[in-house]
Amino acid sequence: MSEAGERRPVNAEYAVSVLEQLKFFYEQKLMTDITLLVEDNEFPCHKMILATCSSYFRAMFMSGLSESKQTHVHLRNVDPVTLQTIIAYAYTGNLAISDSTVEPLYETACFLQVEDVLLQCRDYLVKKITADNCVRMLSIGDLFSCSELKQSAKRMVEHKFPMVYRQEAFLQLSHELLLDLLSSDNLNVEKEETVREAAMLWLEYNMEARSQYLSSVLSQIRIDALSEVTQRAWFQGLPPNDKSVVVQGLYKSMPKFFKPRLGMTKEEMLIFVEVESPGDNHPVVVGPRHSVVCYSPQAEKVYKLSSPPGDLQKVGTLVTPDNDVFIAGGQVPLKSKNG
């Protein structure tokens, strides 16, 4: 292959120096050819830089239409501070994300189609999902069509359902997202009464506007999974109106079987971790040579679990109130050069 056809490694120092010069030109407003207008703020920029990182600007400047010849562009419904952050990223490659800025950054990057910023914000949000914010993250993922964020948040909502269904964010869920959750087999609930209560709270949050969804929402409740006492109390307490007729009709039309949800299939399990007895100078060790088994007293069966990686020293095990099992070691011994 000739020298002209060889692929040579990128000169990192040169690339960095180019970015530094571009940043200098931006800060000094040198050779700028486009000004972004947001509220009372002006951002003189370079079309080539904006088009490089944003599909929105690329389409605008390369369309050949009148917009491509403009020297000033008005951006509406954009926060100037957030836009400044994205412009700084375009010129430096550095993005500052925090809990307070990630959501407006994600929204603006979605509008301007800045793919790199979108990916970084998405990864940040996924890592920050907790029981306190998972319902809101579910709505955000749905709003911006981010399947990774939506699925991660949904898994957390399903797992923490008894904790989250009273949250304001849950009561404000869209009808479509609510149905997706109520129909899920993976809800971590021990009783169907929890799902029924969640459905009723959502309906009663704005009964006037949501009465049209009464049938679709209540049809997600697995009525035969409710206790007889709950069923009688529920229907006897219904007022004599058209809504009662709808509910009664739903009940009569429900099939006489149901698929248990994830939380209804829980059973007590005992986990045994084989470890070496500690000596005077040897800590507790567990690793791939040691078995980790799970015993079900109810089924009287033993299941083999995955062994921890490496020879973990000072190993510890923990079972949380939510039945999450953690097995971890404090350190992994270094192998000697002669070993």
Task: Provide an overview of this structure.
The chain has 339 residues and is α+β, with helices and mostly antiparallel strands. It has 3 domains: 16-128, 2-Layer Sandwich (Potassium Channel Kv1.1, Chain A); 147-239, Alpha Horseshoe (Serine Threonine Protein Phosphatase 5, Tetratricopeptide repeat); 292-333, no CATH class. The strands form 4 sheets. A 3-stranded mixed beta sheet has the order 2-1-3. A 3-stranded antiparallel beta sheet has the order 4-6-7, with no helix packed on it. Strands 5-8 form a two-stranded antiparallel sheet. The two termini are 45 Å apart. The chain is built from 16 helices and 10 strands. Helix 4 packs across helix 5 (102-112). The mean pLDDT is 83.
What is the architecture of the largest domain at the second tier of CATH?
Answer: 2-Layer Sandwich
Distance linking N and C termini: 45 Å
- CATH top level label of the largest domain: Alpha Beta
Oligomer: single chain
Pfam family, one: BTB
Keywords: Kelch repeat, Repeat
Organism: Electrophorus electricus
Domain BTB: 32-99
